[in-house]
Every structure is written in C-alpha cells, then in structure tokens.
Amino acid sequence: MADIKKVVLAYSGGLDTSVILKWLQDTYNCEVVTFTADLGQGEEVEPARAKAKAMGVKEIYIDDLREEFVRDFVFPMFRANTIYEGEYLLGTSIARPLIAKRLIEIANETGADAISHGATGKGNDQVRFELGAYALKPGVKVIAPWREWDLLSREKLMDYAGKHGIPIERHGKKKSPYSMDANLLHISYEGGVLEDTWTESEEDMWRWTRSPENAPDQPTYIELTYRAGDIVAIDGREMTPAQVLTELNRLGGENGIGRLDIVENRYVGMKSRGCYETPGGTIMLKAHRAIESITLDREVAHLKDELMPRYASMIYNGYWWSPERLMVQQMIDASQACVNGVVRLKLYKGNVMVAGRKSDDSLFDASIATFEEDGGAYNQADAAGFIKLNALRLRIAAGKQRKML
Q: Active-site residue among 38, 113, 125, 181?
C-alpha cells in the first residue's frame, strides 16, 4: 500500500489512536484525516481536536452522531427484540456500522485512499469496521496497525509516545484496570480481574448504575408510548430517540437496572468475559415485548423470535450492511406497523416489571379470553376436535409401539 497518500483515522484522542496517528504519518508518509464520533459516551470529544492539531492534522472531523445512532441503529435493532447468546444487548456491536459508514463518507469527501482503526487483531471490532467499510466502498484500503506493528503492550505504546513527543494526558489518578467502551446504549468492561471467570466484578467498577441493594426502596413507575415499534414519549412527554435513551439510562441507573456479567463467543473464535451496563436498553427490551404481546399476531411474533438469534449474530459478527440483514430488517419493520400504544413499567431494585399495556391496535379480546361466561363468543366444545386432530400422529405412533411390544 505504498501508494497511499491520505488516510481517515477513527480517532478518540487516547493513547492508542494518538500513537496510531503518528505511526501512520511515519510509516506511510501520508496525510491523516481524523474522525471523532460523539455517540453519547459521556466524555468530552472536543479535546481530540486540539490533540490532532498539535500533531499536524489539517482535516479534523468531530461529529455528534447521537440521534442518528439511536434512530437508525439502536431503534431498528430493538424492533427485533435483539439479544446475542440469550443475554447481550449488543451495545458495542451496533455502534460499529455507524462508525464504518462515517469513515467511508469522510474518505469520499476528502479523497482519501484508505481508512484506519485502532481495533486489535484479537477482537470483533476489526471485523465489524472492515466488513462495513468493504460493503460501503468495495475498493477501500484498510490499515489496521495492531496487525502490523510490534507495539503490543501499553508500556511499548507509552515509550513510543514519549519518544515522538505525542501529547498524552496524565490526570494523576489511577488508571482504570479495565478496557472500556461506551456509547448511549451501554458501557462495557473487559480485562483486569474479569479475565478470571470465577472472580466477581468489583462494585466500584460500575459507573452508570447503582447496585440493586442501594437502589431506592420505593419503585419508580413510568409510561412509554410506542409508535410503529419505537418509543416516542416517556410519561406523555414527546422526545427524540437520543433523548428517550438518555432518560431511560438515567431512570434505569438510579434503580440498579441493566448490569450484566457474561462469557461470550467472539466471532474470531475465542471466549471472552465482559461486564456491561445497559440500563435504558434493558428497559426498552422488556417494554417492547410487552407492547408486542398485545399487538402482534401469534405467528408473526413467533417467526420474529425464530429469526432474532440469526439477526443478532449478523449484528454481533459485523454484517449490519449485508443483504441478509437488510432483508430481515424489512420484514421486522413491516411487522411493527401496528405496534402502537402505551406500556406502564415498574422499576425496582434491578428489576423491570410490566404493570400494564394498552393499545388501540390490541388483539387482546377480553370477551373471548375471560374465565367468566363469554356469551357464546367462543364455543369450548370446538376444542375437542382441535385436540383430537393434533393428537392423531401421537396416537398412531403410540399404537405402533404397542404392537411392537
């Protein structure tokens, strides 16, 4: 890739990407464009501009992508009630296709030859970034320094930074022992004591949520209004997608909701332990299933549940921009036309409980479901034939077995 003249780097301003910036300049003798995304990670992104300028970068992109992230990525994923391996709400996974999309857009705008990222060769993110990039710009070149250089430890990175005068902030406080990633949907923790699967996570690790033990002794009730499968209001107050998730994070965090400790199967083949805080997402999943329970046809709901694990794997493994994910998304979105109404939830000490649900599109008919007299709405005698027909194959098989005995 000796012909590379300009590279767009996904740049956080931290140690890794600051070293990568200098390394790209020296190794490829190229111009570097930096791109910093505000996905609601809760940290100031503007300092990245000053750091990039100090390192000679002329084209600097700092984009507030919070609304796009929730509207076009998080909400569509939650319409499918998506969880990976039964527990993980895909907070890191769903952010990567948006970053890949913006990297390619900037490459097109600036005439860059390549993109670069700071994902390691052991993780899933390298796959997610690059699959997305190739899907959106087939001929793009990708530079992944962690797969090329020998700076494979924090000590080596610090030595490189010192040798080349790379500005690295030192706050005088102990560095977190965990590798963390955050956005509006979640914050993740890996490494440190978590690499021992028998060791319990430390209480002071968690940043967004109270422990359930220290959560309020009185429950919090909220009402979520749905329109076409998406939350549009909390307690009757209209909100944008990013505002919805921000408020649910606050409410969930106060009530000790959304902590998760799992060992997951990475796409590259290894198992990895991670801890996650997803307070708003945990509330959203419970509420969405509640509104669907009264508005979706049985077979539609069951078909969605059958497809969901495949859909979750597509997102986890980096196939957001694939034709199969786009096809499944169309089906999911079509199913949400009547997913309208209000869900009332009770938040209490780490739990999300459904306290009520209502909709003008509800398929629940109390006159049929009642345990009282239904006035002839349902003829219970009809069930006898239904049961016998469904038992036919069982009766035939049982009869054959008796003869064999």
A: 125
